[in-house]
Each structure stands twice: as C-alpha cells, then as structure tokens.
Amino acid sequence: MKKTIVLFLISLFTLQSCNINTEIIYHKDAASSVITDIDTREFMAEMQAMTPDSLQDEKFKDMDKFPTIWTSMYDMLKKEGKLKTENQDTIKILKKFFLKSVKEDHKPVPIGYSFKMDHITPNDYELIKNFNKDEKLPFDQNVLNTWDGKTLTINTDFFNAKNIEEVLQSKGSKEEAQQVEGMMMMFFKNIGTTLKFESKIKSITGKHDWLKQVDDYSVRIVYDLKALYDKDSKTQKRR
C-alpha cells in the first residue's frame, strides 16, 4: 500500500516545469498543518499541444478521475479496494493526508494538484518518519523542524530538495538514479515554502539568504535551484 501512495506522489513531482509551493502553519498547541500546491499548468499545456486531438481522451483519461475536493488518502485507497493494512498508526496518518486536483473552466485535464496534512502533532511526525523509512515520501523537509508551540528551530540543512531527489532516485534504475540530480532544474521551475504562525513573530535569530520575513506572522523560503543544481554556479562559488 505504501508503494501505491509513493508512486502516485512521484508522478506529480516528476512533471516537468512544475511550480511547487508549500505552506506550513504552526499552531499554538505545538501541532502544525501543511499544504502543498503543485502547479502543472505550463506542463499540461505543453503536453496537450504535443498530443493529437484523436489521442487526447485516451492520454489524459486517468487525470479526470482524480477528486476535485479534498479527499483523504484513506478514503481513496478504500474506495479503490487498495487499503491493505489494519495497522492503526498507518490508518491514522492516511486519514490526515488529503489530496485533490485543481481544474479550470470545467476542463477534464487538471492544471494542478494539492495535498495537505491537517493538525499534525509531534507524535504524528514520529509515525510519519517510521512510515517513510521503507518508501521515501516527497514532503517538504521543513516539516521536520522542531516546534514546541512557542519557538521554531529552523534547520537550514533542510533548505534543499533532497527528499524529493531521493524518491526519484529510489524508483529508477541505477543509471537513471545517477542522472536525477542533473535533471532537477528541468523537473522544477520554482520551489518555495512559507512558514506561518498563529501568533506574531517576536524575533528571528540568525539569517539565511533564502529566508525572508514576509509580515508579522510569516517567513518565506525561496530555494535557489541554480545554486543547488547548476554545476557551473557551484564551481564559481568554490573559486
């Protein structure tokens, strides 16, 4: 069952020309909620333009089956007869993991996808880590930052797309895995994460070029994909 979930998420994250935006909301009770939007508008327009009209229905028919309202992964798997576990910890996480597609002008082909995790407690995150051991999940690593309800400790080592990269590497051949890093800039156009709080931010200690305070309640991380994956850029920085 884990493989079913992972393969679906990989199919979303490997669409070329994707814009990925994540918002993590930190609650006063030390829980947090996460929502990720994947904008595939540009990619789908390119795909449709390259597909003959006679093949459009066949090529994109599976995309029309995806729910357009928030639906838990638990309900999706149960409806499809793919819920193969009775483990209560796994079921608890599946019930908190929601997905949906975004459509425009009632067109059958989605222009994006979203998924969210509602009110995840520190204990839930431990379950997610265990769930993630066998099959890597492409979530924003900033969800693993330490939050106690008052102070957020931001680990700048999480300012990368390694988790997504490892997912892609784990599902391909050895040769394909070696090529993943070089293709990351082709897969993704923009990746950004907003960290939002229910109370006003009192102070920020330390700084990072990619992190900026947006307003009294939030900060924004915008990943420099060129710095992460452009070999020429990396070489120049070392000089």
Automatic annotation (TrEMBL):
Source organism superkingdom: Bacteria
PROSITE patterns: PROKAR_LIPOPROTEIN
Name used for this protein in its record: Lipoprotein
Organism: Chryseobacterium aquifrigidense
